[in-house]
Amino acid sequence: MNELRDLLGDLVADVDAVFLFSPNASFFEEFDDVDEEIVVVGPENTLDAEPFVELPIDFTDLEGRLRFGIEGALEQGIVDEGDEVLCVTEVLDGAENTLVRVQTNDFSPSGVYDMFVNSRADASVVRDVFEVAIELGKKGQKGKPVGALFVVGDAGKVMNKSRPLSYNPFEKSHVHVGDPIVNVMLKEFSRLDGAFVISDAGKIVSAYRYLEPSAEGVDIPKGLGARHMAAGAVTRDTMATAIVLSESDGLVRAFKGGELVLEIDPEEY
Predict the structure, then answer these.
(1) How many Å apart are CA 146 and CA 248, to the nearest integer?
(2) Under a CB-based contact definition with an 8 Å cutoff, are residues 215 and 232 in contact?
(3) CA-wise closest residue to 20 among 107, 78, 105, 82
(4) Which of 57, 90, 113 marks a domain boundary?
């Protein structure tokens, strides 16, 4: 047992910071007398922790969760490149049960944190659109797989770089993504061609838009189709974020600045 304690001691020795992912109050208080920097990462700062990194979506995969927390801490200047950090998180249901020691530069910058926090659109709007796409990916349309493209933010420029494919059902409305009734409407209209255009504040500006930016020079992974190419092109030419649900493989992907920055399997979310 002493040898095991020694091994665990090596795991936590000389770390520059400890990241607590969504800790409860009693667990957080146990770190009051720890000398190392304690960084709380979670969807809300219910503990009034400082420093704090907001987790805008519930990353179910461990790597995604750690990556976002570390990228956020680097962006805020809480930790530096090359720092050794200990991450305490939950993998199985229950209390914090997983320790992971990583170096902050173990993760190459992915743009995930930037996509949410430094997006032109409100982070909550990007999150709400993600949740619509994820639910649509789980359930499809009447049990059948469906594809969809949502372009979020910089709506004026996106509209100028696209054209209507059909009548815009949202032309005279003032509805916003996140409203449960509106989300049902989005799912229903997703069975038709074209992209949804959503404003920075979440107002649904249009459906059925054909995106016209040239795809020349856009580099997307092999096997992805026209929706993904259009998402890459429009985010390269505007300040928008594009969220794509693939009809073929059912994955939800996000593009920003012409690059693929996030990929989520709805069934694991």
Answers:
(1) 8
(2) yes
(3) 78
(4) 113
Domain holding 256, by residue range, is 119-268
Greater model confidence, 211 or 188: 211
Q: Are residue 87 and residue 209 in the same domain, yes or no? A: no
Dump the DSSP string for 89-129: E-SSSSS--EEEEEEGGGS---SHHHHHHS-SS-HHHHHHH
Q: How far apart are CA 129 and CA 190, in angstroms?
A: 13
Give the end of a domain, one of 113, 146, 169: 113
Dig out the tokens for 189 from the structure: 């209209």
165 band by pLDDT with thresholds 50, 70 and 90: very high
- Token pair, residue 20, equals 């607590």
Residues 61 and 133 in one domain: no
Query: Domain check: are 109 and 132 in the same one?
Result: no
Taking the C-alpha atoms of residue 116 and residue 120, their distance in angstroms, rounded to an integer, is 9
- Please indicate, yes or no, whether residues 75 and 132 belong to a single structural domain of this protein: no
pLDDT tens-digit readout, 28-71 = 998 988 888 999 999 889 999 999 998 887 777 788 889 889 99
Residues 227 and 123 both lie in one domain: yes
For 107-127, write each residue's pLDDT tens digit.
Answer: 777 677 877 877 889 888 998
For residues 258 and 184, membership in a common domain is answered with yes
CA-CA distance, 230 to 202, in Å (whole number)? 21
Same domain for 132 and 61?
no
Element (H, E) at 227: helix 226-237
To the question of pTM greater than 0.70 for the whole model, the response is yes
The gap from C-alpha 40 to its chain's centroid, in whole angstroms, comes to 18
Instruction: Please report which helix (H) or strand (E) contains residue 3, including its range.
Output: helix 2-12
